[in-house]
Amino acid sequence: MRLIWTLTAVLALLPQFVAAQMAAMLVADTVAIVGEDRLIATGNIEVLYDGNRLQASRITYDKPSDRLLIDGPILITGANGEILTATQADIDPKLENGVLLGARLVLDQQLQLAANQIDRADGRYSQLYKAAVTSCQVCGGESPLWEIRAEKVLHDEEAQQLYFTNATFRIKGVRILYLPYMRLPDPTNTRATGFLIPQILTNDLLGFGLKVPYYIALADDRDLLLTPYVAAESLTLGLRYRQAYRSGDVEITASVSEDTLTDDGDTRGYFYAGGEFDVGRDVKLQFDIQTASDSAYLSDYSISNTDRLSSIVALTKVTDDIVGSASLSYYQTLRDDESNASLPPLVAEAALIRRYYPKIGGTVTLGASADTLLRYGDVVGDEGRDMTRTGATGSWSRDWLSSTGVLLTTTGAVEADLWQVSDAIHYDPTLTRLVPYVLAVLRYPLARTNGKTRHALEPVAALSYSHSIGDLPPNEDSTRPELDEGNLLSLTQFPGQDVAESSTRLALGLTWTRSGSEGVTSQLGFGRILRSEANPAYTVTSGQVHAASDWLVAGQIALPRGLTFDARALLQEDGTTTLAIARLFWNRPEVQFAGGYIWQAEDDNIDRPVVSEYSLDGAVQISDAWNLGFDTRYDIANEAPVTAGVELEWRNECVTVSLSVSRSYASSTTVEPTTDYGLSVALQGFSANGMPQVTPAVCRN
């Protein structure tokens, strides 16, 4: 019968041992006290102390030396999950100082460190002699896929670092690299200064190259990542700096390059900086700065496919009753056919909206706003026009619910605006306008339940009237109107302030929603706007160029297991499509997929050709070892691909290999298609914060 001894029970005989092990518990087949200074436990021994667990076949405690002599097989499981095995040990009762022979240390169930001898010191350091380190499955006498053999390895548990002396890196037993000294993070380390996974790259423009990132943990609240990139046609240094503050955070990414891609040989680069801060009283400061040395740099180095850069600094405040914002934006075009001076490049905006709840009922909303567009240069006319608008709005809205379930919402509103225009030909320097609005929205929701399936049908009608009184200003911010579910019942369907409607409008809509017991939710909606007269500010692709707008049709279906599909279309009277958009999403642990398609008619008024394009983006876990990622965009209208890429990853318990291929085709910022190839190999067990664990292969005889 096994005996359970609480070591405090032998306090009188072994005071020193018990004082050191006040919470220890010993479980063994037999326990004997020999004389006055020795305790011997044998047979299926387990010792539990301070989260640690020791298993052995025999333990002898010697009181004069205060040592434990342990015979194996020995298994020690630490409080943090580390595992230590040995054949023999001479160690103190706290397992902090001593020697273990024929030992093996396993960290985070990933990294194995085997040695002839392990010395424990101060409960913090484990020093291994004649060590072999790997995260691969070791079968019999076979060499693992990779291993590091070292004369000495020091594991610092507190710093979570491994220090190697006279180390050789081997693949299948063959020596590949010798390093007299090396430091690597252990798999429990979440942030460690050192080299990250290198990547081999091949690019049509830059040639063969190598990226070797180096991570620097500056402090708990900030870090720096330096990425030297050496290629046949370029020398590049990239950096990323991050810092967290009590009230926000900042991130900066940039790179500087010397390459042979330009005739003048100038230094090239880019700079991005972004951050967000809570400055108090519900006010947030946000900024996003973007700039590049030339129009092709981001494309040449596969950083981004964007063709316009926007920099913005903004203050916002949002509460239950107040919304305020102020922003300053700067735009930089990367398109060959655009002038930066006429975008306009500089835009300043400010707005304040506040809601009140008067005793008569309803909601009163008051607002004030201002925006400025500045172009630089000596051009007069649309290409050089500067404009400032200031305005005020006021509205009152109230809901009325009848006993039969009919909901009526009434709104009255007025807008007053003043424009100051300069460097214009066809407009006076000062323009004013007043626009009153009235709106009545009638809803009659109907519901029916059939078993566990619920149907909801909601017809809606919105009658509105507005009339513009005053001048007609330039249209700077309302050039892309489009009818959709969000503005069907709004006071206006224009996205900005510069254009106002003078007409009577009747918006009609119908929405059907079904919620099934099987977990399927679907929705289908129809809508249309009838105007007393057409507004020439609407373009063809807005769906509202005629007095009777196109039919708006929109639907969505959400299926179990993470599959969602939605679509929207604008259909003319004869069934011709003005706009069609469809999207598909599938989100599962083993599959992430997003697909989209857009078709938009030609619109000469805004110089937009026919748009027809699809995009696919996803990742599939084929098996425990294989992962496949892909993305593609194809321009159907021009019968030309835009981008395409695929990434294949193979992973086992000791290594991750990733191979990627991507191709970018000609665009407004580059006339030469480019192809990028990438290869990276990561050793499991050394990455900071660990790596996803994979079940090791089974050894076969």
Features:
single chain; 701 residues; mainly beta; 26-stranded antiparallel β-barrel; 43 strands
What does this protein look like?
By secondary structure, this protein is an all-beta fold. It has a 26-stranded antiparallel barrel. Strands 1, 2, 3, 4, 5, 6, 7, 8, 9, 10, 11, 12 and 13 form a 13-stranded antiparallel sheet that branches. Strand 33 and strand 34 form a beta hairpin. Residues 1-23 have low confidence and may be disordered.
Produce a short descriptive summary.
With 701 residues, the protein is mainly β. Helix content is 1%, strand content 61%.
Q: Portion of residues in helices?
A: under 10%
Shape: elongated
How many β-strands, per DSSP?
43
Q: Which regions have little confidence, pLDDT < 50, spanning 5+ residues?
A: 1-23
Structural class: mainly beta
Main β-sheet: number of strands, strand sense, barrel status? 26 strands, antiparallel, barrel
Rg over C-alpha atoms, rounded to the nearest angstrom: 35 Å
On the 0-100 scale, what is the average pLDDT?
Answer: 89
Number of helices: 2
> Strand content of the residues, in percent?
over 45%
- End-to-end separation in angstroms reads 38 Å
